[in-house]
Specification:
The chain is of the alpha/beta class. It has two domains: 144 residues, Rossmann fold, CATH 3.40.50.2300; 142 residues, Rossmann fold, CATH 3.40.50. Helix content is 40%, strand content 22%. The protein has eleven helices and 14 strands. The strands form two sheets. Strands 6, 7, 8, 9, 10, 11, 12, 13 and 14 form a nine-stranded mixed β-sheet that branches. A five-stranded parallel β-sheet has the order 2-1-3-4-5, sandwiched between helices. Helix 7 links the parallel strand 8 and strand 9.
Length: 337
């Protein structure tokens, strides 16, 4: 008689109380959806509340260890992840974090979020291959902006970089001046939301003709207010495969009657990964060699592979913003190291 297979006991560390409770609840729902859609078997998911704090994340991790969980999905935020990394490594328990901060990745901490560094390199490389030169890149003067600039330099991409202070509108003046003087043909702004809206408003106010400049953006542009902005029509942006995401989003709405936040899809991806690894490798699912299986995984954001340094390699779609909708132009594999 064959030995009974042991379930893969996985801890989900998310904030269910505190300021990020709503986000944590959405991630939990996405993970539950993955269990259903992927037809999980021999898989136990235990939920632990991080209480929206790093201390709470530590306490949640200790409980997960006591309960003999062998894999961890989450946390969402970098500070929470840093608070539990040592505990996880001491137990040889891999972390499948939902952050997009690749600086915290290592061979036991996998960063599954949509990396702004990766997307930046992907869209700039695509633009240059399609005859868009003299590109101006606009970055916030903060840790993220510096990280993107470092990645651009490392990949030897040709672009002028201007930093601005997100808290000072006057810091946008050098951007308008550079465009007026420099015959700019491409403009890359990785940020979305209010930050993007402020920059575009400043350019329009300064009578910059954006119609003769190829605008370039990231997946942060994939939200209704941005897609409806008349000044941004014609832009090229990077996003995960929209077909898979739309299918996931439709299932989520059908089950929970709300539109999920984007980060919830990363939780779905993490559970899909673990279910697939369990099916393929059973008790050896969590060895580094099998986690980084070259076949990769299929999740809410399309196909992705984990690399031994903890980063994720995704297949991005290059999309054109046209009439407030995204039209697929091409496919580009990320350049994750």
């Amino acid at each position: 008689m064959p030995a009974k297979q042991l379930p893969l006991k996985t801890a989900l560390l998310v904030p269910l109380t505190g300021q990020h409770a709503k986000l944590g609840s959405a991630v939990e729902q996405a993970c539950e959806l993955a269990l259903f859609v992927k037809k999980a078997s021999n898989f136990d998911l235990a939920i632990y509340d991080t209480q929206s704090t790093a201390v709470g994340a530590q306490e949640a991790m200790k409980k997960a260890i006591t309960d003999k969980c062998t894999a961890v999905v989450g946390p969402i935020f970098s500070d929470d992840i840093m608070a539990i990394k040592t505990l996880a490594r001491a137990q040889a328990t891999p972390l499948f974090s939902l952050s997009n901060n690749t600086a915290i990745a290592d061979n036991n901490t996998y960063v599954l979020g949509l990396s702004p560094l990766d997307q930046s390199i992907t869209i700039l490389d695509y633009a240059q291959q399609h005859n868009v030169d003299n590109i101006l890149t606009v970055l916030p003067q903060n840790q993220l902006g510096q990280a993107i600039a470092g990645e651009i330099k490392k990949n030897a991409l040709q672009t002028q970089i201007i930093f601005y202070d997100p808290k000072q509108l006057s810091s946008l003046q050098p951007i308008t001046q550079a465009i007026q003087k420099g015959h700019i043909k491409g403009l890359f702004i990785p940020e979305g939301g209010a930050a993007l809206a402020r920059i575009i408003s400043a350019l329009v106010y300064s009578d910059i003709n954006l119609k003769i400049i190829q605008l370039l953006g990231s997946s942060l542009w994939d939200e209704p207010a941005t897609k409806g902005n008349p000044s941004l029509q014609g832009a090229w942006i990077t996003t995960p495969d929209p077909v898979h995401y739309e299918r996931y989003e439709s299932e989520f709405k059908k089950n929970y009657a709300v539109t999920p936040p984007k980060v919830a899809s990363i939780g779905y991806d993490a559970i899909a990964l673990l279910i697939t690894a369990k099916k393929h490798f059973d008790t050896q699912a969590l060895t580094p060699a099998n986690i980084t299986d070259a076949r990769g995984y299929l999740g809410a954001n399309g196909i992705f592979k984990l690399l031994s340094n903890g980063s994720v390699q995704r297949t991005y779609s290059i999309m054109k913003l046209q009439s407030s909708k995204l039209i697929k132009l091409d496919v580009a594999t990320s350049k994750a190291p």
